[in-house]
From TrEMBL:
One of its GO terms (molecular function) is NADP binding. Involved in the biosynthesis of the chorismate, which leads to the biosynthesis of aromatic amino acids. Catalyzes the reversible NADPH linked reduction of 3-dehydroshikimate (DHSA) to yield shikimate (SA). This is Shikimate dehydrogenase (NADP(+)). Belongs to the shikimate dehydrogenase family. The lineage of its organism: Archaea, Nitrososphaerota, Candidatus Wolframiiraptoraceae, Candidatus Terraquivivens. It holds the Pfam family SDH_C. The gene is aroE. Pathway: Metabolic intermediate biosynthesis; chorismate biosynthesis; chorismate from D-erythrose 4-phosphate and phosphoenolpyruvate: step 4/7.
Length: 300
């Protein structure tokens, strides 16, 4: 394999692709990913001749990586940070939620075109559905301005959220995202730059907080953008980071008396929908959950 299109297999390396149908993951980094474990467990459980492989792709190799998967006859692939928005220009068509938010995490390769979907939105909605009463009319804080943040915003709006504030490292990007969703959704939005004062002021007024940044992800899992003093008791805090399952942010939220939603829940829900798109079969969700839990345990 080329240097820029390097695969990271979570299954024994003695296995070759052979006649298996290829499904991939492209992103950077991917060494923390448990998606190969989740999908390969599901394929094996149903006796499907599929193989899921993670590829770490450099920014300047994104286009060649996408074309390479097509040339290899792949069924499709997932897209993770930081390419959920950048990959759009290499696809032939966006549908459903991907078309709304211009961010893609799942691609289906058809005979003559590559179609982009976003299953993150459904993943967030299913993970937060038990807290719908809290979300109805709530003030929400989304940390981040990438594709995950866009998916979270659409999910929160559909669950009845009244106001969404985006906080990102680049203020102009946060404001641009806020303006984008204000025009498309029936919610109030704000966009702020990342600072300690902004986080404290906004977080204390919010019923729901979603971290859509990689902060707190293994191996840098000793970091959090918020401390317990900044989180309201009775609020709902979701971290899209799933490795570790309980991030430092979620530990702080638990100490503050908030309800915590692990990114592992969202991961499995979105993976199940991706599986359905690639195979047209009902996903074995319990098998996928068990595989995810076992896989993240290796990093402990």
């Amino acid at each position: 394999m080329t240097k820029a299109f390097r695969g990271s297999l979570s299954i024994p390396r003695r296995k070759s692709l052979g006649n298996k149908r290829l499904v991939g993951l492209i992103g950077r980094p991917v060494k923390h990913s448990v998606s190969p474990d989740i999908h390969n467990a599901a394929f094996d459980h149903l006796g499907l001749d599929y193989l899921y492989v993670a590829f770490e792709v450099k920014e300047d190799a994104l286009g060649p990586a996408v074309k390479g998967l097509r040339a290899l006859g792949a069924v499709g692939f997932n897209v993770t940070i930081p390419y959920k928005q950048a990959v759009v220009k290499f696809l032939d068509r966006l549908v459903d939620d991907a078309e709304v938010i211009k961010a893609v995490n799942t691609v289906v390769i058809e005979k003559d075109r590559m179609v982009g979907y976003n299953t993150d939105v459904l993943g967030v909605m299913k993970a937060l559905l038990p807290y719908k009463d809290v979300l109805n009319g709530c003030n929400a804080l989304i940390l981040g301005t990438g594709g995950g943040a866009s998916a979270a915003a659409l999910a929160l709006a559909r669950l009845g959220c009244g106001c969404i504030t985006f906080v990102g490292r680049v203020r102009s990007k946060a404001r641009r995202l806020a303006n984008f969703f204000r025009r498309r959704l029936n919610v109030s939005t704000n966009g702020l730059g990342l600072s300690a004062s902004n986080l404290s002021d906004v977080a204390k007024t919010c019923n729901v907080i979603v971290n859509a940044t990689p902060v707190g992800m293994w191996p840098n899992d000793g970091r959090s953008l918020l401390r317990k003093e900044q989180i309201r008791s009775g609020s709902v805090v979701m971290d899209m980071v799933y490795n570790p399952p309980e991030t430092l942010l979620l530990k702080e939220a638990r100490l503050a008396g908030a309800s915590c939603v692990s990114g592992l829940e969202m991961l499995v829900f979105q993976a199940a929908e991706s599986f359905r798109l690639w195979t047209s079969l009902d996903p074995p969700i319990e098998v996928m959950k068990a595989a995810a839990l076992e896989a993240v345990g290796r990093f402990a």
